[in-house]
Amino acid sequence: MKKREIYLDHAATTPVDAAVFKKMLPYFSEKYGNPSSLHKAGDQAQAGVIKARQQIASFLNCLPEEIYFTAGATESDNWIINGIVEKARQNIKKPHIITSSFEHNAILEPIRVLEKNGLIEASLLSVDKDGLIGLDQLKKAIKKNTVLVSIMYANSEIGTVQPIKQIGELIKKINPKIVFHTDAVQAVNYLNCDVNNLNLDALSLSGHKIYGPKGIGALYLKKEIPITSLIRGGGHERGKRSGTENVPGIIGLGEAITVIKKQSHDKIKKLRNKLITGILRDIPDSYLNGSLEYRLPNNAHFSFKGVEGEGIVIALSETGIYVSTGSACASHSLSPSHVLTAIGLSNEQAHTSIRFTLGRQTREGDINHVLEVLPKIIKRLRKISGR
Ligand code: PLP
Q1: Are residues 327 and 184 in the same domain?
Q2: Do 235 and 302 belong together in one domain?
Q3: Scanning 123, 162, 239, 358, which has the fewest C-beta atoms within 10 Å of its C-beta?
Q4: Ligand 1 site-directed mutation target among 185, 230, 253, most atoms within 8 Å of CB
């Protein structure tokens, strides 16, 4: 019999939805044309790409020509930072960027490099213990040379949801020319992403976090925003991101985003709350990290005093339960998570943390099983570590 497997790491990646996969399949074999070709095979592929662009635009409430396909959110995030700065530097010697200390490294790293090379000024906003950014702090940080503010919609590690609409309102009131971008990778499944309503000029999203394929993402960019091209070549994506389109991936992204509209989040939230209540009740010295109120409905992130997070992940994995110590991309790193230190955890506390992220397939039996297994694991690991 196949060992029971319980996957609770949906912030790292999600399985491709069966209906999405079915829609993608013909684009590998029957409809394999290059969308740029003039013949019928090309037209067929092009029609699929047009439809997917419309599906995404409809979800975000923007124009189809404001959607650019990329190879994922890391690419979208890098592009918005580098592309806005390169353009701005044609008029401003040292443009200023505002972000938070809490962002994904796909935002922080390109900013660090630009700053190190003396090309920009950067302000990193701090977050409070719940993981929230203060609007006053943002207001004070805006300067004459500020060209871009990038604040993530929902945090990938502790699930904190930022007040994006209010942040956008504030920025636009102070200076409507400042580009407001959000990394919405973790938010798209659960939160309203109407870019007009949220006062957004740019938004990054990723296929594999929304039950679509890996290696495909998109950047929404408001029409009039000046940006340099990401990849130069044959002029694809209105000259901004050249390269033959990843047609099956694009079809998958369009379908995946369409499926989201049909989902209810009540069940997932109920199960997540059961997990939180059960863990805090049954495991002494366990703590929930981040705001409970302003949080994605599928996220639960804990610290367990005196136990290494990696040890818990491995022990759970041996029983067929898959969780994470935090951001999937950073989970091989030995340094403490910058997100956890940003909310005030010590390095030691940060190392005792694990993240559960539930998904569409999560059942009550899965949560019951975790609540049965985890207290024993923590007890055993604490014994080994001499606590
Ligand atoms: N931004 C956030 C918030 C993420 O969680 C991730 C993935 O973990 C990324 C960006 C990178 O996305 P991709 O894997 O599509 O490059």
Answers
A1: no
A2: no
A3: 239
A4: 185
